[in-house]
Amino acid sequence: MAAQFQLVMRSGPNVGKVFPLEATEISIGREIGNVIVISDSEVSRRHAKLTWQGAGYFIEDAGSTNGTFVNNQRISAPHALKAGDLVSLSESITLAFEATGNSNATVISSSTGAVKATVIASRPTPPLPPPAVAAPIPRPAYPAQPPVAPLPPQPAKKGSKIWLVLVVLPVLLVCACVAAFAAVDYLQLWCSPYLSWLTNIIAPLIGGGICP
Known about the structure:
- The chain is of the alpha+beta class.
- The protein contains two helices and 13 strands.
- Among the domains are: 4-100, Tumour Suppressor Smad4 (Sandwich), CATH 2.60.200; 161-203.
- It has helices spanning 158-187, 196-206, and strands at 5-11, 18-21, 25-29, 36-37, 48-53, 56-61, 69-70, 73-74, 79-80, 86-88, 94-99, 106-108, 115-117.
- It has a six-stranded antiparallel beta sheet with strand order 2-1-11-10-7-8, with no helix packed on it.
- A hairpin with a 5-residue loop joins strand 10 (86-88) and strand 11.
- The longest helix has 30 residues, at 158-187.
- The protein starts with a strand and ends in a 6-residue tail after the last helix.
């Protein structure tokens, strides 16, 4: 059956250890064959026994040496357990009888043995608050920069162009004439019918004939 109750060790060799109660008959003792084994010299081999009767557990001593106690009272007959009872097997071993989180758990009154149905309702977990959203960091406002006006075009200097024409053009003309004269002289074209007119002009200037 599903565990509706459990024993939790409050003092002893394994403090905090939980023993779920899932069988109808549960033996407690130092011996390995027990359902709940407590390795302590003060615990007898077969110390106590839990029995499911009707709707709850009863505990009884199994002829132990040190006895079985419920809420510091030694028992000599089967005793009905209720949630919150403390079961002592010796001066140093104490187990708490508790109801688990299962619904419809049954609690038995130790004084009258009457059965009381107690519903342990699971409390809904409250929703977690939404995470805090960090406020955006304001950016500093910078003044707008005025647009930069383009530089006006620089007027071309007319004097420089005139200087180039006056200097470069005569030089080119002289070079062309020298090159033409050298080519004509090299090819002996002075006496050709095409340049006879030029020969007649140059001959008086140099004081002699050019053609043989």
